[in-house]
Specification:
This is HAT C-terminal dimerisation domain-containing protein. Keywords: Membrane, Transmembrane, Transmembrane helix. With about 80 residues, the protein is an all-alpha fold. It has helices spanning about 5-15, 20-40, 45-55, 60-70. It contains four helices and no strands. The protein is extended, with a radius of gyration of 19 Å.
Amino acid sequence: MQHVYPALTAKVLKYILPFPTSYLCEVAFSAFVDIKSKKRNKLLDMEPHLRLKLTIRELNYDDLSFQQKQFHSSH
C-alpha cells in the first residue's frame, strides 16, 4: 500500500501514529499532566487543549517578515 499511494500514506501516518517515539509520548504525558493539574476543575473535555499543546507548527518566516513590513508602511 505504501508503494502504491505514497502521498496518502504519508498523510495517514501523521494521524494514526501520533507518538512514534518515546520522547513524543513523554512530551504528551507531561502536557496532559500540566493541563490537568492547573485547570482541574475548569476543563471537562481535555482533547482540544491537549491537541493544541501538542500541535507542531512550522512557521513561514518569509510571510512573517512580509507582514512586519506592512505594519511599518503607515508612518
